[in-house]
Amino acid sequence: MTKDQKKQSDPEVPEVPYLRVANVQRGKLDLDHVTYIRVPAKKAEKLKLLPGDVLLNEGGDRNKLGRGWIWDGQIEGAIHQNHVFRARIRDGRLYPKLLSWHANRSGKWFEDNGKQSVNLASISLSKIKTFPVPVPPPEVQDQILDRIERQVSLIENAEVLTAQALSRAAVLRRAILNRAFSGALVSQDPADEPASVLLARIQAERDAQPKAKRTRRTAAAPRKSKAPTTAPPTKPAPSPTLVPAHAVQQEFDL
Fold first, then answer.
1. How far, CA to CA in Å, does 46 sit from each of 20, 75, 192, 210, 253?
2. What is the spatial distance between Cα 82 and Cα 64, in angstroms, rounded to a whole number?
3. What pLDDT does 185 receive?
4. What's the CA gap between 229 and 119, in Å, rounded?
5. What is the residue extent of each domain of the chain?
6. Is it the case that residue 187 has pLDDT exceeding 70?
7. Whole-number Å distance between alpha carbons of 59 and 40
8. pLDDT digits (tens, 9 = 90+) for 115-159
9. Per-residue pLDDT tens over the stretch 215-235
10. Radius of gyration of the chain (CA)
């Protein structure tokens, strides 16, 4: 779906949610900022996304071609713009997740079959239709799906634990710096002289020292110009050392 500026100003045309390239990320959908577009009711019904539809990006940066994820019906009546392709699997021949994972891992194919303009890359629908997709037997699909989902779950848990560890490390760093600047990082000796007393004593010693008297400068007498000296006569360069006729090799113990 492309925006028709005339329809956008017509309040009689209904508004529907509208997925853009920015909403379709690799392996996820970012639905925090979904815009709306005015579309005739019949066309909106025809373009309406259904749960299980696989969304693939058509344009953007070259490494973003073909990236996408699955629509699970998060927003009722949502459609997609013309820079996002919709793949709908018929008769349950393939799990949508397997198709989306396969497309996300086939960046080289999309780059080879896409086109690059000055700023943007794109791939046509006719090229998308030639994208090779393996369709394993149903029982093999179940095994692949279960194995990948377990690995993805482990990765997501590791990301959560990493974020928590980084947050705790930042809090610990601030606590250490606070204790260091407050003098609580190591045990204090009560016999030590406080810093304020030390600074006051240093300042008092400086104030007690006599100030050096400044001597008045006298005008410097003009310098006598020296007669230019002549360079001493140069001596002829010594003759080069003759190369010995017989070279002797010596070895030394290291």
1. 18, 16, 83, 96, 92
2. 15
3. 78
4. 72
5. 5-133, 136-173
6. yes
7. 25
8. 888 778 889 889 999 999 999 999 999 999 999 999 999 999 999
9. 776 666 566 666 555 656 666
10. 40
> DSSP alpha helices (H): ranges in 51-210?
96-104, 107-113, 125-128, 138-181, 195-208
Which amino acid would we find at residue 198? L
SS3 96: helix
Task: State both tokens at 212.
Answer: 């050096």
Contact of 57 with 65, CB cutoff 8 Å: yes
The predicted structure's pLDDT at residue 246: 53
Q: What superfamily would CATH give domain 5-133?
A: Adenine-n6-DNA-methyltransferase Taqi, Chain A, domain 2 (3.90.220.10)
- CA 115 to chain CA mean position, Å: 25
Which of the four pLDDT bands, split at 50, 70 and 90, describes residue 162?
Answer: very high
Mean pLDDT of the chain: 84
Q: Which amino acid makes up residue 151?
A: Q
Per-residue burial over 124-155, b if 16 or more Cβ lie within 10 Å, else e, is eeebbeebeeeeeeeeebeebeeeeeeeeeee
- Site of tokens 């006569």: 233
**What distances in angstroms separate CA 158 from CA 29, 54, 154, 164, one per listed residue?**
21, 27, 6, 10
Return the closest-CA partner of residue 140 out of 95, 105, 92, 101.
95
Do residues 67 and 85 lie in contact, with contact meaning Cβ atoms separated by under 8 Å?
no
CB 129 within 8 A of CB 72: no
| Maximal C-alpha separation, the chain | 110
Q: Are 119 and 86 spatial neighbours (Cβ–Cβ below 8 Å)?
A: no
Check residue 207 and report its DSSP letter.
Answer: H
